[in-house]
Design a protein that fits this description.
This protein is mostly helical. The protein contains eight helices and no strands. The longest helix has 23 residues. It is globular.
Length: 181
Amino acid sequence: MDKQQEIELVTNCQHGDKKALDTLVRLLEKSVYNAAYRMLGNPDEAADVTQTTFLKVFENIGGFNPKFRLFSWTYRIALNESIDQLKRRERTKPLEHMPISDTDSPQETVALSQLSDEVQSTLMELKEEHRSVIVLRYFSDCSYEDIGRILQLPEKTVKSRLFSARQQLKNKLNQHGVYSS
């Protein structure tokens, strides 16, 4: 969606257009859920954060500043909600299995599931600031510029934090025997 279409959608949402609100949710729901899931590692909590994110978007759409991108603004809300949820947790819960392709053999399915669980578990060991840049870059395909806008960081800081996060993730995966350099 280009900037003009985005402004039109936001304007319509601000005027209470339910169809525009539905469109906004359809456009961003999967991305918001994926980011929350990668931050939290729990599908139920990710669904709750997704719902809370859109409630906050709807409540605050009147104050949306069109100089920002709707995507970045919404992602920032989702990440803040995810971080708040992590703070409410007493401890990290194990992940449930993610769906695997029907075309994989049973051995491949088990191996992919184990690898996915190990990567997600290791991702959960990273600090929130490192996990968020990994999630945004590799699971949400955000550019450095988008990540900077979402996290309200200079692009140089994003690159530096992403480098550190990758190193930490690599080291932890290596310690778990998942990755060898």
